[in-house]
Structures are given as C-alpha cells and as structure tokens.
Amino acid sequence: MEREALFRALERSLMEDLRPSIALEALFAGAVPPEFEPLRRMKTTAQSPVHHPEGNVWNHTMLVVDEAAKRRAESKDPAALMWAALLHDVGKPDTTRVRKGKITSYGHETLGAELARRFLQCFSADQDLIGRVCALIRYHMQVLFVGKGMPFADVNGMRENADLEEVALLGLCDRMGRLNADAEQEAENIRIFLERCGR
User: Which SMART domains does the UniProt entry name for this protein (predicted)?
Assistant: First the structure.
C-alpha cells in the first residue's frame, strides 16, 4: 500500500472503528513505506514484563488504541486522542535499554513527541492538531510522575502546553492498555492525578 493510502486507512480506522487494532494489525502485517518504520519498530521493542505482561510496545499500543476508541466520545478532541494513543510510545524503540537487569525507556515521551511531529508532518498540514497530539504524547507520563510525586513531575509545564483532562484520558487509556489492568485502581490513579493538578 502506498504511503498516502496507508495513512488515510490508519486515520479512518482510528476515527471510526470500534477496535482499530484489527485493521492496524492487517495494515502492518507486511512491508510498509519508510515513513511508517517508527511504528513498525514497536513490534520488536521489548518492555518490562512486570509492567507490561502483554509483551512488546506494539502489543501494548494496540490495547491502548482500542481503549481510546471506547472512550472517543469522552474526549473534547478525539482526533488528537486517537493519534496520541497510536503514537504515545513511538519513542520507545530508541530509548529502551536494559539497566541493572530491568528494561527501561527513560525519556521516551520527549523523543516520542518529536518523532510523532515528524511523522504527522509527512501527511498533514494541520499544525494545530499536530501540536495537540504531540503535547499529549510529551506529557502522557505525567499521570505516573504527578500521581507518585516523582521528581519528573511538571504540572506547570503540562498546564501551559496541554489540556489536563485530555492528558488524563490518554493516561487512563495507557494504564488500561495492558493485560490484567485494574479498572478501579486506574480510575483512582487518574482522580489523584487530577486532584494534584488542581482539578
């Protein structure tokens, strides 16, 4: 499939399908144009089995995308939510390391925002949408950082550059996009995050 057609098929699936993962698995089953390699690389990027029993980054992303599709109607900005769900971990292939026997991907959200910008600019002139997608990706880890009071928390930066409720919604999809996720616990984590952000 040529690059423009593949992008449009991706867009259609993200915005219309109840389970976009079904179409995405088919679209990425074979060779893809070079512009899509950042997404394909997620299939060969391992994650911590403790935090991600579902396996590699692609498996996790498919679960997140399906979770986001269930919650599209809750979003003020469904296009940004869905693209961010697909691209939120696109920085992991380049940041994943094994440190002291543990798989980590420190800084994947910052690199991911830049990679997502480059990817989307290949196909879209909508800079406002691209900016909103990249802001969600850049701040999606804040749900964890703020909720746990970690030193990487940046509430002020997030409030200036992203919509807190949309970050929370993506964060919930991210947390639910793993095997055996505890829906009650994750909802409580989001409540704590919003409370600590002053909402």
Answer: HDc
What predicted TM-score, i.e. pTM, was given to this entire model? 0.96
Number of domains in the chain: 1
CATH code, domain with 108: 1.10.3210
H helices present in 71-163, as ranges = 78-87, 92-95, 108-121, 127-139, 142-147, 155-161
Backbone angles phi, psi at 75, to 5 degrees: -90, 140
CB atoms inside a 10 Å sphere around CB 91: 24
Neighbours of 195 (CB within 10 A): 11
Give 151-181 pLDDT, tens digit per residue: 999 999 999 999 999 999 999 999 999 998 9
Range of the domain at 44: 3-196
